[in-house]
Write a structure and sequence with these properties.
The protein has about 260 residues and is mainly beta. The strands form four sheets. A four-stranded antiparallel β-sheet has the order 1-2-3-4, with no helix packed on it. It has a four-stranded antiparallel β-sheet with strand order 5-6-7-8, with no helix packed on it. Strands 9-10-11-12 form a four-stranded antiparallel β-sheet, with no helix packed on it. Strand 2 and strand 3 form a beta hairpin. The relative contact order is 0.10. It is about 10% helix and about 40% strand. The chain has two domains: about 140 residues, no CATH class; about 100 residues, no CATH class. The protein is globular and about 55 Å long.
Length: about 260
Amino acid sequence: METLFAPELRIPLFKKIEKSHSSRYVVESSQDRIKFTNIIVNRLAVTETDSHKTILEIDHQREPSHFWFSWTRGQNNRDILLTRSPDPEKHGATMYLFPTEVAKERSESKEEISAEKPEGDLKEKSKENPKGDPKENPKGDPKEKPYKEVVIPTSFEWREARVSPDGSKLALVCDRASSKPIRVFDFRNPETVPYPELKISPFPAIDKMNPYRAEIEWKNDVTLKASVPVYCRDELSLGHDYYCQEFTLNVKEPHY
């Protein structure tokens, strides 16, 4: 899409920008209409803060307001971007794990070590294999991506996702296709799906409460706070159609 439509042909309709927890990356969600047409372009891009280089770009098929994304932080302070599936026909989400500062430092140290090798060694290697080893660098292979992409398939949509402070648990607010409004999973190994589900304390029974529209946040590594709308008109709703009731949900620790 970017190569087909020049910036001067784009009419901005929507834009949202968020920094990652480490501030090393910025995600921008945007929607543009192309001048003189009815073509709508929805785009999500991740850019490195220092170099301003775009390292991830998604042309998704959803309205930006329906294409949720959330920066979160995994173990070792790793930046993780969770997004809804770009395809409206599919449920679940996609997760992008970005390298940590430690990983960056290691890659830089490798470059320094290779730069210190004697020039003769490099010449000798090039004579032995002047065209390069096809096993090490297959023809036509794209450059290695600076992130790890993990597809998380589910039979239901997610509305919101939050990772615990220690990075070991993933809490989701689900839609009505799920049997549970809030689910928590073992997130110690985010690259390995499916995730084992953890037990949480149930919601109390309150009439006209809609836990599928809850807002959640972690109070600590084993406790969730859920703000849930209760639909009614009384002194608690202050003239609105609902008021919010807060609950504390305890999460059972995974087996180590």
